[in-house]
Design a protein that fits this description.
Largest sheet: 7 strands, mixed
Strand order of the largest sheet: 1-9-8-7-10-12-11
Low-confidence stretches: 6-16
Mean pLDDT: 88
Shape: globular
Strand content: 15-25%
Radius of gyration: 20 Å
Order of helices and strands: EEEEHHEHHEHEEHEHHEHHEHHHEH
Number of helices: 14
Length: 370
């Protein structure tokens, strides 16, 4: 599989996820649904000043891409599971009378031969119309959702979104943007990686790539390897091999002005394990900075647990235990490739990016400082 790559307005702000106490006006609500290779997730939110309040949410592991690597098709059982989850989403949208929404699906439906048939079935059984988005838009939405976590000292930024079926990497040059304007400049990328002229300081997208390997697809590629440690090493090496064409800079960048932001269930799970959380707490994880030594320590602890230990560990959870080592293999490969000893953890991604883009287009967000 060859990684796909590109040919290569105003700002909107950080996420605010405090529930709204009173029932909001349905005309002011927006929804964003992200159907990935492994999970179905949705947010319903109301604009609030320079951010938004989450009114309702949904998240479930549906494993839509099960068997896709072998057959090239979505299986009947995975489609059935997914449609059950989408019925719940439809009920939430109806109950909240949401009118503005984007309901998107990503790598599994980009690759499946029967994706269009599945989308027609979803429309017929739930009334929801799913939209297959392309890798560039997926990468762009992940980038803008992470902008509030970018340090004003950062001149070279790498945003990594580890999904179920693909991994997006975007390298951004901020060196020509004044320090205080850097997060806002990233937010303006919602208009495109190479937007038309703007009077505002511009973030330059140096390079981006969509590698068709995520936690589910990478796991499936090495499912025939029985030894746990050997499978992990092979997955990490194989993912790094797929990054050979992504070389935005051939020379080393100074560590103090380079930042990696990672967004995915893998990254947040590793962060929760590092913190020793028995119950996940977004406020402690989102924005956390981890060193490579801390990440390696967590990954080695996962390997020491073995498959049974990982299934029993409450910090990992039953749903993620089968995928955590393929995600950790991707994460370890990324941290080997670039000149930094720290990773910024983002508990945010496609859904937040979809909400920001809709609200920004409608002009309902106030400009806010970071």
């Amino acid at each position: 599989m060859t990684p796909r790559r590109s040919k290569g307005a105003g700002a909107f702000p950080k996420v605010v996820e405090t529930p709204v106490p009173a029932r909001p006006d349905s005309d002011a609500l927006y929804a964003a649904l992200d159907l990935g290779t492994n999970s179905c997730r949705m947010l319903i939110a109301q604009p609030k000043g320079s951010g938004f309040h989450v009114v309702d949410s949904f998240s479930k592991s549906v494993q839509l891409g099960t068997g896709l690597e072998r057959t090239g098709r979505l299986s009947r059982s995975s489609m059935s599971r997914t449609i059950q989850a989408l019925r719940i989403c439809q009920q939430k949208l109806k109950r909240n009378r949401v009118k503005r929404m984007r309901l998107v699906t990503t790598e599994a439906c980009r690759r499946a031969k029967n994706a269009r048939e599945f989308i027609r079935q979803v429309k017929r059984e739930t009334g929801l119309l799913l939209e297959i988005i392309q890798p560039e838009e997926e990468a762009r939405l992940a980038v803008i959702s992470c902008a509030p976590l970018v340090s004003t000292k950062t001149e070279q930024l790498l945003v990594v979104d580890i999904g179920g079926g693909s991994t997006e990497l975007v390298w951004i040059d901020l060196s020509s943007v004044p320090k205080r304007d850097r997060p806002a400049a990233i937010m303006r990328l919602h208009a495109g990686f190479h937007p038309a002229y703007s009077p505002f300081p511009s973030a330059k997208v140096v390079d981006w790539i969509s590698v068709p390997l995520g936690v589910a697809t990478l796991r499936d590629q090495f499912s025939d390897v029985d030894d746990d440690a050997a499978r992990f090493a092979l997955m990490s090496w194989f993912f790094e091999e797929n990054l050979q064409d992504f070389t935005p800079y051939h020379s080393a960048q100074p560590q103090e002005r380079f930042q990696i932001v990672g967004t995915s269930g893998t990254v947040t799970t590793v962060a929760a394990s590092h913190l020793g959380l028995r119950r996940y707490d977004r406020t402690k994880v989102d924005g956390l900075r981890m060193t490579t030594d801390q990440i390696d320590k967590v990954i080695h602890s996962y390997l020491a647990m073995g498959p049974n230990g990982r299934r029993a560990d409450p910090r990992i959870g039953q749903d993620r235990s089968a995928l955590i080592m393929s995600g950790a293999a991707i994460l370890q490969a990324l941290m080997r490739c670039w000149p930094t000893d720290r990773l910024s953890v983002a508990d945010r991604g496609l859904r937040e990016g979809l909400l920001y883009a809709q609200m920004s287009a409608d002009g309902v967000l106030e400009e806010g400082a970071y």
